[in-house]
Amino acid sequence: MNLEEETKFLIKKYNINANKNLGQNFLIDEQVVENIIEAAKISKEDVVIEIGPGLGTLTNKLLEKAKKVIAIELDNKMINILKDRFLLYNNFILVNEDVLKINFEKLINEQNIEKNTIKIVANLPYYITTPIIMKLLEEKVPAKSITVMIQKEVADRLTAIPGEKETGAITYCVYYYCEPQKIMVVPNTSFIPAPQVSSEVITLNVRNSTPVQLKDEKRFFQIIKASFMQRRKTLINGLANSGIASKEQIKEVLNSLELPENIRGENLKIEQFAEIANRL
Ligand code: SAM
Question: Which of 134, 172, 235, 241 sees the fewest Cβ atoms within 10 Å?
Answer without folding.
Answer: 241
